[in-house]
Design a protein that fits this description.
two-stranded antiparallel sheet; about 575 residues; MetI-like fold
């Protein structure tokens, strides 16, 4: 019987394919090329344009921008608003973190839900809620009308109003990163300080704060970036009052379509990026002087007992949560039910026609919901696959190259959203000089922008999940003969799934309600939820914008309930298997 011996023509292609799939160097270079194309090239194009005039290197754009008095007014507004709102965020975040971590308050888990709520709700929706609550015909004026003395109206369309709403929207970032660090501080150190004669305030100032500084600095930096990056709040409150910050001023330059609009916007974006880098430098200085805590165990037992003050503090906290989280949303919901903006909230004036308009009559609103859901789903699915694969490689095979890749992937998220939106225009309008593939002006550029900006959220969530899986479990699986897909299906996926899904939910939620990048990249038939709500409000259709926003808040709350139920059943399944 004649053996089937492969010919040379059969061997060569097989060898080529085999070497292609096993040659790690080829895949490494492909990965580097993709990271440069999607994450670094847009930023390079943006910076390069700011230094160009007539296709040659020039500082003329910076000279023109910095000689304009309006620029300095905008920079001053930006700095004042960012510093003021960050101070509010840090003060509230540290105070609530200390109370939850160290005292014997009751219902802490429920409190934590209310603390996180302002961060979960998109900032532009929170702004709408606050404007409806504090408006001339809002719930606040109806309540204070019952007082025997006059209460002046609160004007949110001002610098103070912008600072107030930004500070309340981003204090959960400081809380989330501070509460864990506070619980890790050994209580023996604080007890030693008290035994030595130090007061509670002195112990807090000289022992607790220095040890908690890594978490406080990280949370404060994230709040700083969020306040600097935010477009929705300054746009909703600042544009009607002619108060511009860098994010809204860049937007106004781009939509103005002047002869030097893109060059001016690029120059302003670089200035905004420099301010963000200054914040990064300040964070580095704080972390450099901070003391590291060696323990990773969280002590959740109370360290301070409030005694007779406990009831008063609990009432004050619940009033704060009610005022900042629930009442504005209720006021927004009430406005969404009015047949016309400005009429009294009575049975005769209640109508569902605003919801009918959003869900049925308006093709723009329906298309925006479809677009946002599609973009969020595609971004999330690709993020899970790419982000988890990269996270696994980053943790299991750490080296300088994948560390550089992680920094590169994180750069678009660290930079302000307006800067990234503008850089996407320059990168994808003509990826190769003279060639326009039609990406800019279509929904594809929104997908690329979302994936570029939010992939790091999935990477960080997956890295945390991978770090919690002991390498010995994988080694045991390999010894038992489980390799490749079998290992992932039977061992890794079940163990990684909760952490990966947490990151995926954050990516989905952020993509679904995104406004800053979308405000610069949307085009006809590619509007997103945030863009349509912004358009309604700018056009004066407050009842439509509040109805649309109320629907989104309801979907977000429903998503959290579903996630909680899934987590509950997953934990029960794990306990049964154990």
């Amino acid at each position: 019987m004649k053996a089937n011996i492969p010919t040379d023509r059969e061997i060569v292609p097989n060898q080529v394919l085999s070497s292609l799939f096993t040659n790690k160097r080829i895949w490494t270079w492909i990965g580097i090329a993709l990271i440069f194309l999607f994450f670094l090239l847009p930023i390079y194009r943006l910076v390069a344009l700011s230094f160009q005039q007539n296709d040659s290197f020039s500082l003329a754009n910076y000279t023109s921008v910095l000689q304009d008095a309006t620029t300095w007014t905008v920079i001053q507004n930006t700095i004042v608003i960012v510093i003021g709102s960050t101070a509010i965020s840090v003060s509230l975040g540290i105070s609530l973190a200390w109370l939850v971590a160290y005292t014997d308050l009751r219902a802490k888990k429920l409190m934590q839900i209310f603390i996180i709520l302002p961060f979960v709700i998109p900032s532009y929706i929170s702004t709408l809620a606050w404007t409806q609550f504090l408006g001339a015909n809002g719930l606040f004026q109806q309540l204070v009308a019952l007082f025997p003395f006059p209460v002046p109206a609160i004007n949110l369309y001002s610098l103070v109003g912008i600072i107030f709403v930004l500070g309340l929207s981003h204090y959960p970032l400081v809380y989330l990163l501070s509460v864990s660090v506070l619980r890790k501080i050994p209580r023996e150190l604080e007890q030693a300080s008290r035994v030595s004669g130090a007061s509670r305030w002195t112990t807090f100032r000289k022992v607790t704060i220095p040890l908690a500084l890594p978490g406080i600095a990280s949370g404060g930096f994230l709040a700083f970036l969020a306040n600097l990056d935010n477009f929705g709040i300054p746009a909703f409150l600042g544009i009607p009052a002619n108060i511009s910050v860098l994010s809204t001023y860049i937007y106004q330059q781009v939509v103005g379509f002047g002869p030097t609009a893109f060059a001016t916007a690029a120059t302003l974006s670089v200035i905004l990026g420099v301010i963000a880098l200054l914040g990064t430098f300040i964070q580095w200085l704080l972390l450099r002087k901070s003391k590291r805590i060696e323990t990773t165990i969280e002590d959740k037992q109370p360290r301070y007992f409030l005694g007779k003050k406990k009831l008063f503090i609990e009432i004050a906290l619940w009033c704060f949560f009610l005022l900042t989280s629930i009442v504005p949303l209720v006021s927004m919901g009430m406005t969404s039910l009015l047949s016309a903006y400005g009429v009294d909230f009575t049975l005769e004036n209640i109508s569902l026609k605003n919801y009918q308009f959003v869900l049925d009559t308006s093709p723009k609103a329906k298309q925006a919901m479809v677009n946002s859901v599609k973009l969020a789903l595609i971004t999330t699915v690709i993020g899970i696959l790419v982000g988890t694969a990269f996270a696994y490689y980053r943790i299991r095979k750490p080296n300088h190259l994948n560390k550089w890749a992680e920094i590169s992937i994180g750069l678009p998220y660290a930079l302000p959203g307006t800067v990234m939106g503008l850089s996407m225009i320059f990168a994808w309008m003509e990826p190769i000089p003279g060639w326009n593939p039609g990406i800019y002006g279509s929904v594809i550029i929104l997908f690329i922008a979302y994936l570029t900006r939010f992939l790091i959220l999935q990477v960080r969530g997956s890295i945390t999940a991978v770090m919690q899986v002991d390498v010995s479990m994988e080694e045991a699986a390999q010894v038992s003969g489980s390799n490749g897909w079998s290992k992932w299906r039977k061992i890794l996926i079940p163990l990684l799934l909760p952490g990966v899904l947490s990151g995926a939910f954050l990516v989905f939620l952020t993509s679904l309600t995104e406004l800053t990048v979308s405000s610069l990249l949307w085009s006809s038939n590619s509007e997103t939820i945030g863009v349509v709500i912004f358009g309604y409000e700018q056009a004066g259709y407050s009842t439509y914008s509040t109805a649309f926003s109320s629907l989104i808040v309801g979907l977000i709350i429903l998503g959290f309930i579903v996630l909680y139920i899934l987590e509950y059943f997953w934990n029960r399944k794990g306990l049964k298997q154990a």
